[in-house]
Protein 1
Amino acid sequence: MADYKQALPTGYELDKYRLLSVLGFGGFGITYLAENLTLGHRVAIKEYLPNEFAMREARTIHPKSPEEAENFAWGLEKFKEEARTLTRFRHPNLVRVSDYFEANNTAYIVMDYEDGESLNEILRRKSTLTEDQLKRVVLPIADGLRQVHAAGYLHRDIKPGNIYVRLEDETPVLLDFGAARRDIGNRTRSMLSVASAGYSPMEQYESDGNQGPWTDIYSLSAVCYKAITGDDPPEATRRESQLLRDMPDPLPSLLEMDLPGYSRNFLQAVEAGLEVIEKRRPQSVEEWLELMPGERVEPPTDEPAPALDARAVKQDAGTERRSPAVSPAAPSSPFPQWLWLPGLAVLTSIAGIAYFWPTTSTPRDDELGLRPPQAIAGAGNAARAGDAPESRSSPRIAGLGDAILVVETTPPGVEVLLDGETIGSTPLRRADLLAGFYDLSLRHPAYETAVLPGQDLVDNRVLRISRTLQRGVGALTLLVDPLNAWVELDGVRMVDRTPVTLEDLPAGELMLTLGAEEHRTEVVTVTVPKDGIGVFEHELEPVAYGTLALDLEPPDANVEFPALALDYSPDMRLQEGVYQLVVSREGFVASSLTVAVAGDTRRQVALVRQAEAFTVAVTPPGAEVDFVGRADEYREGMLLPPGEYRLRIASAGYQPLEVTVPHGAEPTIAEFTLERELLAFGVTVSPANADVEFLDIDETYRPGMELPPGEYRLRFAAEGYAAREVTLIHESGSPQASVELARELPAPGARFRDCPECPELVALDAGEFRMGCMNPECSEDELPVRTVTVAERFALGRHEVTIAEFRRFADAMGYQTAAERLSQRGCRTLELLERQQWEFTPGRNWRDLEYPVEDAQPVVCVNWFDVQAYLEWLSASTGEAYRLPSEAEWEFAARAGAPTPYFFGSDEELLCDYANVADQTELPEGFAWGSPADCDDGHIFPAPAASFLPNAFGLHDMHGNVWEWVQDCWNGNYLQAPQDAGARLDGDCDQRAIRGGSWATSAALNRTANRGSNPSLEGGAFLGFRVARSLVP
């Protein structure tokens, strides 16, 4: 059917339908083109198959695992609920769902299959629309939304690709109700997978977003913006991020653009619908349309008004039978022609998948007509003006237009007749026929004529006919010279001698293969008359023969015909012609040659001996190898003929070597080891009495000692000075190194403050450690494990910054955090007594939380920019450069030299001695942690800072209590991460890394290597920070 491996096969019968092809597939299902076995018309069928947690085995859909069974069943109910919802709507501008049923352990939705083109394709072709053109599309869609909203439902995925314009009556239709897809997305994945960038408002990116009619109004206004400007609107998340930073809205104002032909009221209505904050948008379709004078929507009724039945009108009017002749003066279409590429067919389906079949018609610029605007109410059924021009000679029904006939056949090129009059050949589309009842015939010289009596052509309606004709049969007499010719059809031998008469052949043109001994085989085209006997005469061309003899060197070389099933032998007989030969033998280079055989043909073929591989292996690796006395450039494994080769081998820091290497008839691998070069080594040290010690070799340092070139790690120490470890590069011509020691700083492990009320710091030494997850099970973002050098000493807060310490800053500066400034949004809290997930809670901030606030607790509900403001104040107050630690500094400090999952080892049962985590502490009734630690730390919420045992560096709460902001931008792994301990400032800087876990996280999330991320603009009751500063003399 399609190359999508999960699809059901072509011809599969599903309920009362037969599947014809796959129209499209996505993450939530497959859409098929099908035929109704009872009525014969085509429909589109959507199958529920969420590939994230289900798969097809044989014909039946199964969850991928027992764990996914609940998600699959839940999503299936949502899918069926959406089908039941859509069957309620009967509006000309909403996709019509005619049926739904269950089979194969899943569910199916049946929808209309219609002709049309998406607004997305129209805008791709035209770029922008005028106001009148845009209202032709938007106002009927708004009327459909009125009915959807009145029933208590939302669309949730309005965009140009989900708005189509029908070919039949040139009215728009809205597709793809995203309710079930959104519900599944809420349950299984990020909301980004069910939001359309640029067309979804901010509330659709949030799992608890306040959605309503204003949500669809935003999307419909975004469609207007695209049609007016030709550009997609910027994503809502980007707009909100800019506005929260007091930066200009990235959406340009329509009122400030030069848009001739657009009314100010219409542009104001579009801008009102695009407000970021949902409460500022019109709250209903009616409110939105009130901003556009002259456009309104009547109050919704329980059921949509029934559409006028065109067939009933014809019968009442007593329509006469008409000739299929072209109307002499057909008026131009009353709907704007810019909406159409003639002859394009499109599926209207819940998946919003469009497929097009172009014809030879192409719209011209001078055909782009427009229709005057109509009121929205009843727009989908509005009568068209100018349908009964006086110039028509045939009788017409007042108020109706031309009938449309589309005929497709297999094979194509079939003559189409109405009442015996030819009107064209297939594929055929005629939009200029007069309405009436006709006998339709399909005629082809090689196929049986099909007659379809009583076909009803109706004004402003499409009659689509698709038929496969039955091929006729006939007979053919073959007269071939020579008489002993054989005949094949489609690779099957039919007869071995001619003349012969072949009966029951398919009528029409056939391709036959004729051949005879010592004659050329030919493919000929013959014509078999239907229900008759034809005669075909043909003479085959004789073939001349010659002989082939090869003089081979070596004589036992092998000869092959690669394109023919022939075995070579001397003086063999062959048809005269050109032959491709391959001559080969082990130890020689194979030769391909072309030989023209004519008469007695003889050729000499001498093979060249094969050169052997030549390789030089040198220690150290990477040494340069050059030929002496040859222009060749040495390459490992190069092919050389036998002989002796003089080589020069050299490498920096080693003594060069010249050597002669013999090379015979076998591959050569010559191995050499170069001797190291010794150079005088010395270091100038300040103070001069400092001790110098090698760290990586077993040698005692002496000024002027001789050492091979390379890198050496040394330690310099003197009383009253801070010891230093330095790596020196020792090579020829390099100047003597100088090392200056700094005066002593606070000893590693020393605790100190820069002011009486400043956060208490712990001095940490420089060093080197392995960063990342070193356990059997690791997250991708914790890899790869790498060695990081902390080159400079630094100090880190003994514990997280407390509420009391942060209050001194807030009171001194009159500072309000983002959660306080945006109180209607507040801070993300867990609210244990109300829910079991993190959500923004209005009014919550660091001063007012869901638990009793104590000065000794760590401050939370501060975003990354709030923290930067605190650090700037603290730096200005002390004269020291305070900052956040980098991720590398944080993990170095947290590990305190331990390579285990926790700084105290690997035993999770000890976790409650060192950390406040999600544990066995008694919780409010009805609430439970997802994966609690198997211990009791005595705290549900954040504990006072330093309540638990410290690590080996004297640092408290490096596991649990609250997550801690660090300086780094978020990156999903350590690839391309720096080897030093500096913060990584590339990647996604709208997200910042956080470390350490919290009171609400499992044991696994409190591992030293565990990483997290959080939007820079958002804080939470789980997230705080601790300060750092460099230690420099």
Note: The domain at 751-1030 is CATH 3.90.1580.10 (paralog of FGE (formylglycine-generating enzyme)).
Protein 2
Amino acid sequence: MRQNSYNFQIDTITPFRIVTLIITLMVSSILIIPKLDFESKTESNINEFQISFGIPNYSEFEIEQQATSILETAFSQLSGIEKIKSSSGNGYGTIAIKFSKGTDMEFKKFELTSMLRRIYKNLPPETTYPIINGGADNNEKEFPVLVYNIQAPLQTSELKKQAESIFRKTLAGVDGIKSITVSGSENKSLSIKYNIEKCRAWKIQPALLKTTLDAYLNSNYIGTVSSTAGEEFFVRIPSTVHTIGEIGQIQIPSNSNTTIHLSDIAQINLEEQNAKSFFRINGKNSLNISIYIQSSFNRFLLANEIKNTIRKSAPQLSNSFNLAISYDDTAHLSDDLQKNIKLLFWSCGIIIILILAFYKDFRTRLVLFSSIIANVLLSVLLTSIARIEVNSFTIIALGFSILLGVEHTIEMSKYCLREKKKWGYWAFSGALLALAIPLYLVSKLTVTRNINLSNFCFGIALVLSSSFIVSIVLVPNLYSLFSNNLSSNPAANNRIHKNKTLISKSYLNLYYRAIETIANKRKIVLTILILIFGLPLFMIPTKWEGDRWYHNVFTHTLGSEFYQKQIRPTADIWLGGILGLFEREIREKANYRNLDETRLYVRAELPFGNTVDQMNGILTQIEEYLSTEQGINRFTTRILSAQNGNIEISFQEGFDRNNFPHLIKSRLINRSLNWNGVKWNIYGVGKGFSNDDGGAIPNFQILLKGYDFNELEKQAIKLGDKLRKYRRIQNINTNELADYGQRQTWEYKLQMDNNKMALFGTNKHNVVQLIDEISKQTNTYQYVILNNQFYPVLLKENNASMFSNFNLLNDPLALKSNSLIRLKDFSQLELQLGPSTIYKEDRQYIRIVSFEYMGSGDIGNSILKLSIADANREMPTGFTATNNMEIWKNKEPQKQVLYILFGLISIYFVCGILFEDLTKPFVIIGMIPTSLIGVYLSFYFGNVTLDQSNQAAYVIVSIFAIRSAILILTDVSKSFRIRPKANQNLLLIKSVATHFPTFLFIFIVVSCGLLPFIFEGPNKISFFSLIEGILGGLIFCFLGTFVILPVYLWNTKQL
């Protein structure tokens, strides 16, 4: 009974059913493509909450003591906290809480909400209720997916109404839209502009105008009445004002007998409110429609649907309407996808032609084509399950799956035709484990610069898994499905291999003698190979400080003055090999290239006290210059406030890669020198500036920590005084901003002399009131209903828009005594740094001291280390000083070395278990540096500018080297076990030579398949340096597999 059950289970697993199951998975992959995460941004703070609150008119010290510290103390009781940071500024406070991985963020948010309800009553009464952001909410994108720009010959308020109505109706049927916002237009307001001279002539104070207007515009409650039923009602007299003319007839009380109406001393009309922000394209005022989508929808596909819907409804708009996309969050990804898919099709076409040329058997062709399609679709399925973002690196990984699919299928086809399935299973399983484990470890790199490499390595690991499934499961069953008995005609099945063997016999003896000659001088060959690769002596530091015995040994040997000056310069060159040449000539010129669209940014900052109109006037002059330059595609102006404004400049095709962007940048810098009091930041990004180092002066930062704020401030000032002793150190800031997103603010401070004010018969209160009467007013103080519409009321002096710092100090101000004063007689206007921000991390106060060194960065770094050592020695207990730049700069190489070691160790143990030998894994690992020689030579002789993709080249070449070595060693080990008494060297040569035709074809297929990508040229990020490195590495991988590997395995003791 058991036997029958067992046979039934085996019989049900037929080749037809297995192939059907794979086809079902392939169809599922096609259906799941629209659900892929096509994103251009990476969420990195999913385990972090940010609590923000405000307390108007509170200083940073008051907020830190009365609010931030209280909240921090309460939040620190939560479990699972990894780090807690806070910042307290003028009128606001924020607390960032980062939890460890695996924390239930929904439950933590519930705990935070409960704590805030309990603590809020203990905060100052002016505190706004704290807002919690982050956690799982980070999945909802904060940025719009599309921004449309509308221009029309209408007032912006009217254009806003029409545009909002049209867009909401048009997109009402599109599922997935979260919200639609309209910006760039201000509503109308009732403007009352009084003439200060007329007010003085009639002896009317501007404050009286406010009182009178309030009396007429407000509804008056004169009392209550009671009904017969005992109910009590309020009696309200509503405002009787209905038109602007009625407002002008309001009588203003005065001491004279003349009746004075509001229209006699003020101009009253409806006008658009002064803009609080500006958004223009090519210097033209415009309206912006921002479209936000829900996080559960595919941004790429939904953005295309929205654009198609709006494109179809565009003819319904008037001819005077100009509609254009000003921002597309998916544009760059869309261009990359189209280009990469086109390159993939070219690559697939080349591979198909090669397969048709080399394989005449229809069954083999069908198996190869089926495996390629299956490998790609299963890779897509695994990518979706693993929730990996689809970007350029992911597409490279998917493209690489085609090449792996061809290689694996060819290898497995050979095993199937030669009836060695069992050995093929072991070889492919070992290769998968030996490669997938280290790739998974590398994918754990979380350094910001290596996020793409992390996704790439994880994607390659998934591709290897998909290729393994196709090779082990699909390929053998396809052969079984097409032929019931593969061995029924062994001669037919092996005729090609037999002919190849007969042809290759004339070369086999020559190959045997060549390897024998090289192997007899194996030590010399290996020594030469090591010297070619290079010894990393150049990486040894010049000094190693410490008191241990090994520090003393280093000081008297490699750290001695004789070695450093007499031996090291020569040793580093002659013993460094290709690795040293690569580090000196190529690595030092490497950078993180941003080869997106070339763009130039002009950022302007003004101190507090300036207006949005003043910022707009400055940037308008920049726009007027840019409009005269030929070669500029578009310049977009954004003014967010009176303190910040920027212009983004893009260039026409053909002008973005020459010197034109640099020329515009230099001209803008020259023009910026004409404005005093404006802080400029002009810089470029993208292709035109990818190799621009900016000529920046080395900047250094020292991070001070302590639990006493006042003492920490004293230590920062003391450290700053010591740094000023160095003549080349400039721009010392003892209170540098700890948050990169913040900007140092400036403000005008009016210093008034109380004694002199007393001589003029006034005080600060009167002076502030007089300034308020003639300066520009931006706040609404009243509302009125006109023509059944609600309008805010603005009361201001007629010439308030022209009020400036000069007017503030020099214009006469009239006191109640009718005497005139000028502020310049007893006041000074000074430009000072704005309120500082108090930073804390893990409840310790943070202070950053920054400085610039006018000279070599190495010397500046030495001064930095010396200053940190002195500070740690002199500061009280509990205070520390560290290099703030080390937080992200020095940990990256350490992590890379650590993961490389873990990867090599995992490869060693997997291969040791596979071959049941602890020496053969060293042979496999030794193939990696042999192959990397080709990568380094390609980078050197190809004059390639390294970017973030060179690390991916190392990974791919290492994969080919390890896989080739494992497959050959599997055959060699199998031959040794079957014929233990035969000549092992001869068996070695035969096993290696058997793989030569297959590996040669794979090498041709992979190389030709990569050619379309390299045709894009060096300006194609992640492709040119990547592909050039892979091609060079494959050449040395091929040579290493058929020359160095047999030399490693040659048995010199055997006759």
Note: The CA atoms of residues 46 and 136 lie 6 Å apart.
Protein 3
Amino acid sequence: MIAGWLLLLASLLYVGLLFVVAYAGDRRPLYPRQPKLRPIVYSLALAVYCSSWTFYGAVGTAAREGLGYLPIYLGPALLFIFGFGLMRRLAVVARQRNITSIADFIGARFGKSHALAAAVALIAVIAIVPYLALQFKAVSMSYAALGGGSSQFGDSALWCAILLATFSILFGTRTIDATEHHHGMMLAIALESLIKLAAFAALAVYALWHGPGLQATVELPVRQFAQGISPGFMAQTLLAFCAMFCLPRQFQIGVVECEDPNDLYRARWMFPLYMLIVSVAVVPIVAAGLRLPAVSHGIADAWVLNLPLANGDRGMALLAFIGGFSAATGMVIVSSVALSTMISNDLVMPALLRIRRLRLEQRSDLSQLVLLVRRIAIVALACMAYVYYRAVADSADLAATGLLAFAAVAQFAPAIVSALYWRGASRRGVATGLLAGFGVWVYTLLIPATNPMASWLKEGPLGLSWLQPQALFHLSGWDPVMHGTFWSLLANVGCLVFISLRFRPSLEERLHAAMFIEPYAVDSGGASDWRGRVSVADLRTIAERIVGERSSQRAFEEYGERRGRALTAGESADRALIQYTERLLASAVGAASARRILMGALSGSGLDIAEAMALMDEASQELRFNRELLSTTLENVSQGISVVDAGMRLVAWNRRYLELFDYPDGMVYVGVPVADLIRWNAEHGECGPGEVEEHVAKRIGYMRAGSPHLFQRIRPDGTVIEMRGRALPGGGYVTTYTDVTAYKHAEQALIEANETLEQRVGQRTAELSEALAATARARREAEAANASKTRFLAAASHDLLQPLNAARLFTSALRQQPGLDPDSAQLAERIDASFRAAEDLLDALLDTSRLDAGSYRPDIGSFAVADLFDSLKAQFAVIAEQRGLQFRIVNTRLAVRSDPQLLRRILQNFVSNALRYTQRGGVLVGARRIGKEVRIEVWDTGPGIAEEQRARIFDEFQRLERPSPWGEKGLGLGLSICDRIAHILDHRLELSSRVGRGSRFAVVVPRVDAMPPRRRAITQPAVVVERLPLTVLCLDNDPAILDGMRALLTRWGVDCRVALDLKQAEQELRQGGVDMILADFHLADDMNGLQALQYLRGVLGDLPPVAMITADGSSELKQRARLLGYPLLHKPVRPAALRALLSARLRKTTA
């Protein structure tokens, strides 16, 4: 068994992964910009069809019925192989008509009927709720199987419903435009398909390895085939065939989210291949399960989970859980998004618009209301599915529940097929067929599933045996699903054909039929100059209420730009504008609701209903003519032209633009971010010298600011391109590219032929003046940038080291925890060592940045070299002894003038590198007098440095290719820091080396008269105090730091008081008894520790001794602390240094 918390953690991490992928896909759309990747993502996303039913239920079905599991895989494959034309036609029509859902599709085809769309939406909701409940059942079953039935975290199905509903709301209801492609969701669903495929295939391989063997596995399907197929095989295959375009989630992914119908060509073989892999993988799992009694005696639907558990392999069991959870996740998310769109557009919003008390017609913006309705719909769906799961689905097997949903949505198939291929199909016929088929489905399948123990099911209602739900008209002996599917589809098709022949389609329906039955035909209707009595202002007001003011304004401005003139509020709207407005509304609330809204506006304007119908259904030849005229003009001008929209995406270009830049095939398409094209040009030298991203940022900045610009660029091939850019009204940017090479050559020849000496002198003078001015500007900008960088470093060093400081404190407290077992102690020691390494890394990086920023102020003074040598010996002698190396320091009486801290830093890096790379021999440190200078040298017997490497070892992140014999790994920053310090101190660095013999590093420093060294007095080591009976007040604005200090100091016996701000500090000090204050330098409200202490001293008078703790390593702070007599501890605080400080304080108090 696996712990319940681990299963919950795995679920949360998986949903979090989908969240990150979807978020990244929405923020930076990946696959739409790459034509080769988009079909792959689309094909994988289609595999959302493989829900938990196919992951768990298929194995259970195969165990019970043999080949009876194959139909759910065979049907979709047959659709893509033999019904490909149907899928492609669906995708083309949906793209042309801005279709948002399956209900919108059927309603738009049959006269844009709102009632028909509402009926489809209602049937879809009723059909899919059991299917959603199936997913919750699968998750609950897997949790119970792996967790031993534990309910540690409550009902797992409830948590699943909450998680998936939240995810669906976050990435399915961001925008009101339901035709906008959900790039992030598609990317997440594609990843989910890969994960469940990998998990299922891994389980199959695992089953082969632990099962009866390859031969026995191959014999299993042979035996099953010999037994024959199950009675419902053909019916289930038909249901699976229809499900691929009738399930709301499959319609959403396969039709609505299809950006290019040509992507179906890749999916035509990728998706059947996916189905083949999954169906074949079922066989070894079933064979292995039949072999193990611990598996075969359990629930067949749980064999996928029980197989690895029976072998004691919890890792594989967890992988199976993730695969099943992944399968359920994708289905719930996409179904929730699709159904919420239908509920909003076809059920709730039309009903709300009819309620006059709400006065929605008076509201200026309904977009947020539409989004709210969709989000509430998702929550309601999750609740209904959960209730159904608790009431019904908990007692049914997965396959039965899945087939129940398949049979329900199959009722949409006759309507969809007739919508695309039969002109004679009428709205009445389709509506009657849907209701009849759905009614028979409820009677023959849903009622028996929800109440299987009812006595009248076997006797028939009122004792009429010929009306038995599962034996209608005494047709018995059939599989229940096959029986219900046969009668429901028979009633559906029969009513559709009969009613359509009895009541012929109306004129409106016939007009719409042409758009669906002939989607590839080009409308050649004549242009119309009709103008009615509906004004532009009226249409814009309607649009603003539905899609929002900003979206409406942008859409109407774009329409006016395409027509070549601005729209005025008072003018009458023409035919094309009315049709354009309808399509705009349809993208938000569906075609049926859009028709209803506009019909109300048109009927209120006094139009004849026939005129209104003609306006709404005839395509605008004038708009198409304008497009063709603009396209022809662009293609025949000699200039390259590119147009981007307000979102900085390419929307138009001409052939000359492609010829000038020679982009790779497939790189340029409508909607590609213009930043990608600029980046490609910069990488190929089209933008001149400089960083690629700087070129991209500069040009995008021009466009976003709307600044006109004129620029001439000399290309690598010598040609000169002149670029002129100008902002477009309402957002966007147009740029022209002209080849002016010939003009520039002629201009240059003319200048060279006519210019005189005086003109040349004047030109040079002007250039010099300009260069001087530019230099002055650059210097000012550099100084400003340097100051900004210095301020940033001060803040960054504090923010970077704060969490590291807290971690070091907590680790030290853990290491000193009494009773810690050896393994935990070793683990704590390793954690502490890791934090020390991270501290060294941050110190090196921050030192490099501070040195570059010039924030170090050297403290120059005279001192004896022997003082430096003493500190080096104390620091490195033990390390050399541990490695068996000699470490010698030659005594000297020389004195130098420099900054002792920075000079010691240089020598520390020299010695550290020498010990790192020296395997045998030793290291020698000494000083030589050279005139008025002293050369301090570090010799080693290491491998030496090749001549070609010496010039670059002082650069950042440069290390010797030869590894350290002691396993140390440097960052390559040490010598770079030395070089920067030497530059600040105006010292000279020297290097000489012989490969195989060793190296000599030296720094040359100004010499001064000899002075005695300040030798430290040798004192007896202080007695280690096990407990420190002190009261210490810690002042810091970070609660984590205070918690860490309290944990560490308490281990030492210190009474630790903490304060987050001045008020708390003042209260603690007024209580008295504080022996010492540890104050952070960076506090909240733009106050530092020195200011805080000054305030407290002014309020309270004398204060206890103070020590400052800071991540600021600036010289100014060190000098201020020294003047005030405050000891300074740097973050991350080393516990040894802190303990030494407190011990010294204790000795003073007890002296």
Note: Residues 757-815 form the longest helix (59 residues).
